[in-house]
Amino acid sequence: MNMTPMIESFVMHFGEMGSRWGFNRTVGQMYALLVVCEEPLSANEIAEALNISRGNVSMGLKELQSWRLVQMHHVPGDRKDYFKALGSIWDMANKVFEQRRKREMDPTLSLLRDILLDKPANEQEKYAQSRLQEIHDLLENITQWSEELQRLSPEKMAALMKLGSGVGKVLDMKDKFLKSS
């Protein structure tokens, strides 16, 4: 498979972004290629397009499958396995966010809960625990909020995003109203 300059530009950039989202550059490139290809691709086609080893493709596909971002397809009469990106772009964003939460926020929340259960030994630890409680509460709120967002339909999520700063204005108006009451 030959990539056009436009597709190659996107695939290379997505690889760099993938490394910031929790998977390596090559896995990001593989996923980007699958996202923009209408038809499922074989591991050999992916390796050829990205100029990477077949083994690297195999490991990357396993990682993408563990993230539930790609699915294997079979073509009648062909023994090769083919792969396609799963779901919509909203599905992808939800899955990446969910995996990042599980890998980054959940362990941090678990550690904070354990630390907060300990009785502080001195004033320094008491102060530290009060700060850790603030961090815990923030992460807990973010987790609950993100879970609620993930339950929204793509249409409702798009509408919410379009509201943007308008939400802040509504909250400011609410505060003014409550103060004047």
Detailed description of the structure:
The protein is mainly α. It has 2 domains: about 5-85, Orthogonal Bundle (Arc Repressor Mutant, subunit A), CATH 1.10.10.10; about 90-180, no CATH class. About 75% of the residues lie in helices and about 5% in strands. The protein contains 8 helices and 3 strands. The chain has helices at about 5-20, 25-35, 45-50, 55-65, 90-115, 125-150, 155-165, 165-180; strands spanning about 40, 70-75, 80-85. Strands 1-3-2 form a 3-stranded antiparallel sheet.
Give the rounded overall mean pLDDT.
Answer: 90
Structural class: mainly alpha
Low-confidence spans: none
Largest sheet: 3 strands, antiparallel
Continuous helix count: 8
- Give the tally of structural domains: 2
What is the chains' assembly state? Answer: single chain
Distance between the termini: 67 Å
Which overall shape is indicated by the principal axes computed on the Cα atoms?
Answer: extended
Tell me how many strands there are: 3
| Approximate strand percentage | 5-15%
Percent helix range: over 70%
Radius of gyration: 22 Å
Pfam family, one: MarR_2
Family: Belongs to the GbsR family.
Keywords: DNA-binding, Transcription, Transcription regulation
Domain HTH marR-type: 22-80
Indicate the topology.
Blueprint: H1 5-21, H2 25-36, E1 41-42, H3 43-50, H4 54-66, E2 70-74, E3 81-85, H5 89-117, H6 123-151, H7 154-163, H8 166-180
Antiparallel strand pairs: 1-3, 2-3
